TrEMBL record:
Keywords: DNA-binding, Transcription, Transcription regulation. Pfam families: HTH_18. It comes from Rufibacter glacialis. The keyword Nuclease does not apply. This is Helix-turn-helix domain-containing protein. PANTHER family: ARAC-FAMILY TRANSCRIPTIONAL REGULATOR (PTHR43280), TRANSCRIPTIONAL REGULATORY PROTEIN (PTHR43280:SF32).
Amino acid sequence: MDLQLSGSRQQQAVKNIRFHKTVCGVELLLNVGAGHELLEINPEFNAQDSGVYTTDSFEIYFFKKAGGHVILNQRKIEIRDNMVLFMSPFQKRHWKLEAEPADYTFLIFQEDFLNDFFADKLFTYRLLYFYQLDHALDLPLQAREMESFCEKLTEIKGELVQPKLDSEHLVRSLLYYLLLKLNREYATQNQLPLEKPENHYAYQFKKLIEQHVKEMQRVNEYAALLGISRVTLNKAVQAQFNVTAAHLLKQRLVFEIKNYLIHAELTVHEIAEALHFSEPNHLMRFFKAQTGFTTSQFLADYQNGTKA
C-alpha cells in the first residue's frame, strides 16, 4: 500500500498573491519593475526565503546579476547571470535568492489583460514558455540580448508611470515585440517548432486542459468539447508541439498529482477523489507508469531534495 499523506507532513495553506493595479501604481493589469519593487506588490515577500506561494499572474524575470535558486513547477532552478525565468499563473514557487548581487527586472501581467490587449483569446497559449512542462522554464541569454530586453522594459515602465495619449499603443507594440522575441529564442534553444499554425485546435486543447484537467482525463472528451475527432486533435497537437495529445494530457495530470502530494493536506484516497479516479489504486498505477516511482517514493525523494 502506498503512502497516505497526512499527519506529520501536513502543509500550511499556500498563499496566493493577487495582482492589484492600484497597489502597483499603474493603470493597466501589467507592471514592470526592479526586483526590490516586489515588496510594494507583496510586503511580506522575502527574496532570500519567500516561502511557498502562488500568484494569479504571468511573470517573467530578467536577471542581469543574481544568484541562488527557486523551486518552481517542482524543479530546482539555479538563478544565473543573464537568464530569463518564466512563471505561469498559480504555479507554486519558493525563492531563495542571494542578497548580493541582485540586479533583475520583472514583467507581470494577467492573462485576460494580455488576451484582450492583443484581441486573441489564445495568445498566452501560443507562447511556448508558459504552461510548459517538458522543457526548461529558464532561458540563458547573451549579455547584449539581455540589455536589449531590459531597454524595452524600461520604455514600457516609462509609459506606465507617465502615460500619454498614445502610451497604450506604444506599450502594446513593445510588449508584443518582447514576448514574441523571447518565444523565438525559446523555440530555437529548445528545438521546438515555430511554424504558423494551420488551425487553433492545439492551443485550444492546451487551454482546455488547464481548465478541466481535474475532471477530464481522456483525449476523446476534449475532442468532443472542440467538436472534432480525436485523430484531428492529435494531428494538430503533434504539428504544433511535436508530441501527442495524450502525452500533453498525461503530463499535465501527473503534474497535478505531484502538486497535491507536495502541497496538499490530503491522503492518496482524497487526491484520487479530487481528480476523479475511480479508485486510489488506479491513480497509483497511473503515477507509477508515467514516472517510474510510487507516490511515496516520489514524495520521499522530493523531501530529501533529490526531486527539486
